[in-house]
TrEMBL record:
Protein's UniProt keywords contain Transferase: yes
Pfam families xrefs: Transferase
Lineage: Eukaryota, Viridiplantae, Streptophyta, Embryophyta, Tracheophyta
Top-rank taxon, per record: Eukaryota
Gene3D superfamilies, sorted: Chloramphenicol acetyltransferase-like domain
Family statement: Belongs to the plant acyltransferase family.
Alphabetized InterPro entries for the sequence: CAT-like_dom_sf (IPR023213)
Protein name as catalogued: BAHD acyltransferase
Keyword Transferase: yes
Keywords attached to this entry: Acyltransferase, Transferase
Length: 439
């Protein structure tokens, strides 16, 4: 049987109350302006208990509640109902897209095991759509299954939001849907202004990081909680006796990727890993929990020489990198040289990512952002996922929380490298590739 996702209705959802005039113009910070223009995609999967002849009626009621609460959410998260206009967000209440769809199967048919390419059908727009930066800043797609289950795909414009922000928005939407207003967030926008100079138009000087547009494949590797404990024990050393779960998983993926070249090289190419960091708790004083927007930065670390590129050595590099970032870079970010610090770091990354004599990897941890708390009144999601088996950008690792406390790593590599990567015995001792999701 061929599965087919059919979209049957698209509506523009506007804030339930108009945005006040004094909030109609939202300035983009330098962090916003230097962020690539694409959508962050996440899909939230929910089981259902409706009988087949009741599922359509239940879907209508669920959708009615979702649209009402989304409208209320947009009153709080008002910039996302606007449009980008140069270095500003015109908070004009133009609205967000709400797409309704149905699929001709039950939820377990999709999840045993998930087909990464087909999962794209559950997103409202593709990550690298040409609409990014010119159209909607937030789009959602709600797809109903014959069993009463549903998938909620959310795409949010990355220039004004990170995954932390996406989590706050979705959890607020969920809380308002189930009538739990005390759990909903009143977000605080513009927090970058508390530590960065007033924004200017940096578009003419911004050294954009060069993503190499090459054919790549993406695979999902699941590290369950017990295996992560074992991995952390193996990654521990005298210098880093207690590595974090993210440090251990990133180090193993980095190590495996470096040795996955199909070319008969005597030694792996030198590599650099760029690790994205949530700034909120790194600043002094830290930003409030309800601080939303794009509030992230990064550090880079180089692989150790030759035989030193073992798990413990890579963990130490990561620990040293975050230490240097927190001790020096963040202080400069909050000082008088903030703009030059940001521009110099971006210039260096631009150079490194464009070189052919090194491997440049991007690592993003989307863990601990509460995405599994999004209960719309039908229980918490059984799975929160990305989508895609093919990719235009290789050498990217994205880490998400797993439901059991483990980590799901979505890894994008060149096709010829992925073949070796997914057969690596050390990796497979701790991770399962594309396992089923149990409802």
């Amino acid at each position: 049987m061929e599965f087919k996702v059919e979209s049957f209705r698209t509506e523009s959802i506007k804030p339930s109350s108009p945005t006040p005039l004094h909030l109609r113009s939202f300035e983009l910070s330098i962090l916003d302006q230097m962020t690539p223009a694409f959508y962050i995609p996440l899909i939230f999967w929910y089981t259902g208990n409706a009988a087949a002849d009741e599922s359509s009626l239940e879907a209508e009621e669920i959708s009615r509640r979702l649209k009402k609460s989304l409208s209320e959410t947009l009153t709080r998260f008002y910039p996302f109902a606007g449009r980008i206009n140069g270095c500003l967000v015109d908070c004009n209440d133009d609205g967000v897209d709400y797409i309704e769809a149905r699929v001709n199967c039950v939820l377990r048919d999709i999840l045993k095991p998930p087909n990464g390419e087909f999962l794209r059908e559950f997103l409202p727009i593709q990550k690298d759509s040409n609409e990014a930066g010119t159209g909607r800043l937030l789009l959602v797609k709600v797809t109903f299954f014959e069993c009463g289950g549903m998938a909620i795909g959310v795409s949010i414009f990355h220039k004004i939001a990170d995954v932390y922000t996406l989590g706050k928005l979705v959890n607020t939407w969920a809380a308002l849907t189930r009538g739990s207003s005390e759990a909903a967030v009143f977000p605080e926008f513009g927090c970058a202004a508390s530590f960065l100079p007033p924004p200017k138009d940096f578009s003419f000087t911004t050294p954009a990081m060069k993503f190499k547009h090459e054919k790549a494949v993406m695979r999902r590797f699941v590290f369950d909680a017990p295996k992560i404990s074992m991995l952390k024990a193996r990654a521990a050393s005298a210098t880093v006796p207690q590595p974090t779960r993210v440090e251990a998983v990133v180090a193993l993926i980095w190590k495996t990727a470096m040795t996955s070249s199909p070319l008969p090289l005597p030694l792996p190419l030198p590599s650099v890993l760029r690790q994205v960091v949530n700034l909120r708790k790194r600043l002094n004083p830290p930003l409030p929990d309800n601080a939303v927007g794009y509030l992230a930065s990064y550090f880079t670390v180089k692989s150790p020489e030759n035989s030193e590129a073992e798990l413990q050595g890579l963990v130490k590099r990561l620990r040293d990198g975050i230490g240097e970032f927190s001790e020096n870079y963040v202080k400069k970010l909050q000082g008088s040289d903030a703009i030059s610090t940001i521009l110099e770091a971006a210039k260096e990354v631009g150079k490194l990512s464009g070189r052919d004599d090194i491997k440049f990897y991007n690592s993003l941890s989307w863990c601990r952002f509460g995405v599994y708390e999004a209960d719309f009144g039908c229980g918490k999601p059984i799975w929160v996922s990305l989508a895609g088996a093919s990719s235009k950008a290789p050498d990217i690792f994205v880490l998400l929380d797993a439901r059991d406390g483990g980590i799901e790593a979505w890894v994008s590599l060149k096709e010829e490298e992925m073949g070796s990567f997914q057969r690596n015995e050390e990796l497979l001792a701790f991770a399962s590739m594309d396992p089923c999701v149990h409802c």
